[in-house]
């Protein structure tokens, strides 16, 4: 990637932008390859979700992620460049594609700005193949035409454009100029429209595969665990909701990000009217400043209504042999996979409690130093799916999931995240999530089944996990 430090004295006119883009066009001709131009500038403080909502069109691809606790929100929309490989090599192919894009990228602006340069937004389905008519391909990565990041009191707006031989520079320059002007004095559209709408009502809720299906599946897998076929498997349920009007994914997220500030509120829209949204408590992996962090999250208890009830339930979870075992399985697997990549991991495996609005979990943050030559997507490829959402041993348990679930997981429990030009970024696990499509929404929730699991209790646990989305659908 070429980096061009912005000369503020020269860059503030439309003519300067035009001349600069003309230079990029020469470069594209000279190199015989289209160039990705990424122009970053600090803007006044914006709320990325509100920006996305203001310019929301359901036929446009977008990506949004925010974790209030970290004071970080990113939104990007409309694709400037995208790629969707499928199959067993999908992570490696995405990694390769990103490297090739960066070879022909020109990043403009103050390179010391946080979130400088192009960012790649990506979603992978749980399984490596997806059906041709599935809402999301088995992997997708895109560079948005515009992106807004707000973090720790600063806001960076990025405009991306691809410039190829023969392109109309005038049109591209106008678009970028208009976008930059728009972000400098952003006018949020009035959401009066929302207050004028009737409150949304859910007309129908239907369990995929029928009401008895989940408990029957749990019974069946418990037999298989007993026979030694595998040690742990995660089974999920899907609820299909139909409302009297279209769900608005971004309005749902506004509530979710407030109520679940320890979770990643996220949305990934395919540009065909469907979006996958959620409030995930689980980070698959992040890479920042030479550190790798992975959440080990498994073992669940309800929240109490009073402080003492809550503390009692938390203490019960910490002492539960079955939940500790469930957690230990995930911890061992995560550490082993990181070690297989040559990383040395922090040894502490004593879980603490992660308390969310609706449930509490056993939690450990596994940390390692990033080693030379290891890319974030190598980590994603190796870790996904952890036994928190797949099973153990992975080769025996994960292929059996389809035999017991009556729906396609799609992006549910898949890695969803972003990567910057330095290879830093973050992937969450797509749980506590829903696929939203007009007036239809499919909600997902799963549980780990190990020896000692009780079907009725696992069913109740999934009901608690459904709450996050169910209660916030408006
Ligand atoms: C699979 C899900 O959650 C996972 C399973 C958990 C469990 O079984 O205790 C806890 C946290 C998550 O890792 C889900 O929410 O759908």
Automatic annotation (TrEMBL):
InterPro entries recorded: ADC_synthase, Chorismate_C, IsoChor_synthase
UniProt keyword annotations, A-Z: Isomerase
Reaction(s) this enzyme catalyzes, per UniProt: chorismate = isochorismate
GO molecular function: isochorismate synthase activity
SUPFAM superfamilies: ADC synthase
Pfam families (alphabetical): Chorismate_bind (PF00425)
Domain of life: Bacteria
Ranges where the Chorismate-utilising enzyme C-terminal domain occurs: 212-465
EC number(s) per entry: 5.4.4.2
NCBIfam families noted in UniProt: isochor_syn (TIGR00543)
Family indicated by similarity: Belongs to the isochorismate synthase family.
UniProt name for this protein: isochorismate synthase
Native source species: Pelagicoccus mobilis
Lineage of the species this protein comes from: Bacteria, Pseudomonadati, Verrucomicrobiota, Opitutia, Puniceicoccales
